[in-house]
Amino acid sequence: MSTSPLEKDFPHFAAVIRQASRHDEALKGALADYETACRKEASRDICEVERAEWTRIRREVANEMKRLVQLYSIDGQNP
Fold it and tell me: Which one of 1, 40, 56, 78 has the fewest beta carbons within 10 angstroms of its own beta carbon?
């Protein structure tokens, strides 16, 4: 069984992110953007420059998801 990109980037928080995204629109959107970036980054039909850009975007969105999960937890909206 292979590990999803979400589990690789967030080994301890992937389930929390998925659960919280059901209730938080910002996190839901960030997760969708993250999944798009992961698909684009893994595409074999793009050049290395494009792949590097999608890697950068994936990392930015991952950082945003971390921030949103922290806010979600602080607000007491435990998933």
Answer: 1
